[in-house]
Amino acid sequence: MLQELDYLSGRVAVGRLSRREFLGRATALGVSATFANSLLAGAALAQTPKRGGILKAGLNGGEATDNLDPATIIEVMSYFAKCWGEYLVAQTSDGGLEHRIAEEIGSSKDAKVWTFKIRQDVEFHNGKTVTAEDVVATLERHSSNDSHSGAMGILAGIENLKADGRDVVITLKNPNAEFPYLMSDYHLVIQPNGGKDHPAEGIGAGPYKVSVNQPGVRHGGERFANFWRSDKEGFADQVEIVVINDSTARASALQGGQVQMINRVEPKVVDLVKRVPNLKIEALAGSGQYVFNMFCDTAPFNNNDLRMALKLAVDRQEMVAKVLRGYGTVGNDIPVNASQPLFPEGIEQRTFDPEKAEFHYQKSGHSGPILLRTSDAGFSGAVDAAQLFQASAAKAGIQIEVKRLPGDGYWSDVWNKQPFCASNWGARATQGMMYSTAYLSTAPWNDTHFFNKKFDKLLIEALGELDQDKRKNLYREMAIIVRDEGGTIVPMFNQSIDAISDNVGGYIGRVGSLMDGYAFRQCWLEA
């Protein structure tokens, strides 16, 4: 069996077998997904990296209002940040942590005091050496009371920060057994003086220096000669991200050779892309999710019966079948699934129930159309999904008015600003990280305006619980609260579907699209 797996993983490494096909055959042989992924990673590492060329990608999710400040980056800018920025840690393909600027990590027995030893001789693009003081300043900026950082929610538990030689010592208000994972959040790019002086200057310690920054158009970087691990990353002379929000145009750019990688391939065109010579599809399951958000504090969504009516009015199976076409699974109105550690099993799966939906709708007292804003910038197939939602809700007597909006401006003007809209969330390393980012009452990215004191208390308790069985039970209680009282409709968990040229080497399966954004620094051009 091992000989066959080695043979198959080798074919993946040279682009003659897709990752999806390999995992399917490995499963048929009785191999776990974790072990299969490790074989793929080993096969990719066995390739010989080549240097040179311009590695180009066409990405969805860019707009004219984007900027380089890591505190506010989203979508395309989060990919670009991993070209020019560097982090304390990064999540690995098997769900573990890789030490990056943090050379060592330690904690007190109660997980309340964490110490990160900063690696020596890591250089910023401006020639300054990265210090513990820079790391402290970075975390201070993202966690301050006046911060608008997307990472503010996960850093809310910090009580004190200090630099002690090469050590960064972080004291928490409450114990947090998952704290090191939080440092992998894509906002937490380590910057000179934490970015307090010039946060949008694009100075980091990553493999590429910012050379082009045209928001909504393109972003580019040139290889940084003094990158601290140039033997392992940063193989291209240049990287370039072209913003292509239209899915058809992205696929055409890949097919025509203008780019070598694209994200968010729509499931309905996957089979067409597969038939194109020299291109391959990389689909990866995880906890990324497509959602419809309701503001819990804004009428008519401040009525839980109305929120419940809408949750019951979604035909999840139909949506997965018609929008995802098998590249995903049904959701249950909680932002986590079985791909994450300590997933709470046994919670009843919510299904389409027009009679119950109508009951709760009548009980809410609402009448008239409900406006749902959507765009394919929200997620691939969001317009089709909204129309399916409209049709299924009509069977419960609920009138949804679908308003299609352009991609440019969607993330700045609609998401987290309008009370009912389509959106998506990428995978997070742990449940605690997901809940802290988007459901904690004080989190800036609490995009459903979900304010629940009991939930907040349980989250703090769960993060500090060192007994995993007890923490799992706490997560289960939290999931039920979100499912039954929250403003998030999670109809489906999507697979990240990328398409790449077989001229790209080094691609391995990793949580999130395009190797969680690290494809730009870890892949290379074969010719």
| Beta fraction | 15-25%
The major beta sheet can be summarized as: 7 strands, mixed
Output the radius of gyration. 23 Å
CA-CA gap between termini? 33 Å
Provide structural commentary.
With 527 residues, this protein is an alpha+beta fold. It is built from 18 helices and 21 strands. The strands form six sheets. Strands 8-9-10-1-11-19-12 form a seven-stranded mixed β-sheet, sandwiched between helices. A four-stranded antiparallel β-sheet has the order 4-5-7-6, with helices on one face. A four-stranded antiparallel β-sheet has the order 14-18-13-17. Strand 6 and strand 7 form a beta hairpin. Helix 2 packs across helix 3 (33-45), helix 10 (316-324) packs antiparallel against helix 12 and helix 15 (453-464) runs antiparallel to helix 16 (468-485). The mean pLDDT is 92.
Which helices and strands, and how do they pair?
Elements: H1 2-13, H2 19-28, H3 33-45, E1 54-59, H4 76-84, E2 89-91, E3 97-99, E4 102-107, E5 113-118, H5 132-143, E6 158-164, E7 167-172, H6 179-182, E8 208-214, E9 218-223, E10 238-243, H7 247-255, E11 261-262, H8 267-274, E12 279-284, E13 289-294, H9 304-312, H10 316-324, E14 328-330, H11 354-364, E15 370-374, H12 382-394, E16 400-404, H13 410-413, E17 420-425, H14 431-438, H15 453-464, H16 468-485, E18 488-494, E19 496-501, E20 504-505, H17 513-516, H18 519-522, E21 524-525
Parallel strand pairs: 1-10, 1-11, 15-16
Antiparallel strand pairs: 2-3, 4-5, 5-7, 6-7, 8-9, 9-10, 11-19, 12-19, 13-17, 13-18, 14-18, 20-21
Helix pairs in contact: 1-3, 2-3, 9-11, 10-12, 15-16
